[in-house]
Write a structure and sequence with these properties.
This protein is α+β, with helices and mostly antiparallel strands and 357 residues long. The protein has nine helices and 19 strands. The structure holds zinc ion (ZN). Zinc ion (ZN) binds next to α3.
Length: 357
């Protein structure tokens, strides 16, 4: 069985599923559909969304008890990174840990799903790495599923992540009035006006500069000015804010509204945060099973990075990020541990079939 998972992970890595390669992403999804179709208990649908494509698989029962979620797209890499290699019990290649290894396990679990399994669903999307990607959200909406519990298979080294930050991207445009550089009194300087605004935002008390799981703010890009000897009439900046709870987003929203005026235009794009009660009974169950199989303690964690788990939280559904062991996502020498994939498979199967826990 582990041989199947290794083979499948390697096969998935070979598909160069980057944002610009729509055709390869489609080929990859079609390959998965064909692979899964060997299990006649499954209903397999390919669904087009406004930002990509997805596969929605169920065992044709009522509302799913467990939903597995993953993405098959990757961030760009050197060509050689799409040729998977095995070294020291690790599979190396782009997407190995983010997250084709986990996806291979999820596919294998579904392909071997037995009649005795509870209602299950698998959602695989091809646009998680894109900032606009929201296929997972649209699949939840379109299929109207309300899984009792969902696992997103991003890397967690077998810890259970129940919280992830939400994002607010601000685009701030400052409108001034141009004048000759020698007569600044006749103009309005868009750059200094923008700087004042940025300073205000950056020093909001909600962004405490202490370490830990807290809201943060980064002024990430800035442009402005037309010529060395002119008062700038236009300047703009991007600000990347991360928040940990919904009330913080509401507070930030109110503050933004107060700052906006005729000269300072602000466009804000909100992305939800992920929040699941750590005492949820399925979180407990996952923790017990993982501890038992790994024979070591498992942490319940918060994480600063985001994932598609946010869309389940947005829909009010309990979700965790839970994945195997690996390193170097979005970087050279990305790998997933083979032993970890084997354990991941066992944990998922125990979660599905073991009635004693
Ligand atoms: Zn990922």
């Amino acid at each position: 069985m582990i041989q199947n998972i290794i083979k499948l992970t390697k096969k998935l890595i070979k598909f160069r599923t980057t944002e610009d390669n729509r055709k390869v992403k489609t080929n990859c999804l079609n390959f998965i559909i064909k692979y899964l179709s060997k299990n006649t208990l499954l209903s397999i649908k390919k669904i087009k969304t406004s930002t990509g494509n997805a596969i929605f698989v169920t065992n044709m029962r009522k509302n799913p008890q467990l939903c597995l979620n993953g993405h098959i797209d990757v961030v760009p890499a050197r060509l050689e990174d799409y040729k998977p290699k095995i070294k020291t019990n690790k599979i190396f290649g782009r997407g190995a840990i983010d997250m084709k290894g986990a996806v291979a396990v999820m596919i294998e679990v579904m392909r071997r799903l037995k009649k005795t399994a509870p209602p299950m669903a698998l959602i695989l999307v091809d646009d998680e790495e894109q900032s606009v990607g929201k296929s997972t959200y649209e699949i939840i909406e379109k299929t109207k599923i309300k899984p009792l519990f969902t696992m997103v298979g991003e890397q967690t080294d077998f810890n259970i992540v129940t919280k992830q930050k939400g994002t607010i991207n601000l685009c701030i445009v400052s409108k001034g009035k141009s004048a000759h550089g020698a007569e600044p009194q006749k103009g309005i300087n868009a750059i200094t006006q923008l700087m004042d605004t940025l300073k205000k935002i950056d020093t909001w008390p909600i962004f405490k500069k202490t370490a830990g799981y807290r809201p943060t703010c980064v002024i990430s890009t800035i442009q402005g000015g037309e010529a060395t000897n002119s008062v700038p009439c236009c300047a703009q900046a991007a600000v990347n804010i991360r928040y940990t709870q919904n009330w913080e987003a509401e507070e930030i929203k109110k503050k933004i509204e107060k700052i906006k005026n005729r000269k300072i235009l602000i466009h804000a794009q909100f992305k939800p945060c992920m929040m699941t009660d750590a005492g949820n009974k399925y979180v407990e169950r996952l923790k017990t099973i993982t501890r038992k199989l790994l024979k070591k303690d498992v942490d319940i964690k918060a994480s600063s990075t985001g994932s598609d788990a946010k869309y389940f939280s947005q829909a009010g559904l309990p979700v965790v990020v839970f994945g195997p062991i690996g390193k170097n996502y979005h970087a050279d020498q990305e790998w997933v541990e083979i032993e970890g994939l084997k354990k991941y498979y066992s944990i998922l199967n125990s979660f599905i079939y073991d009635k004693t826990i």
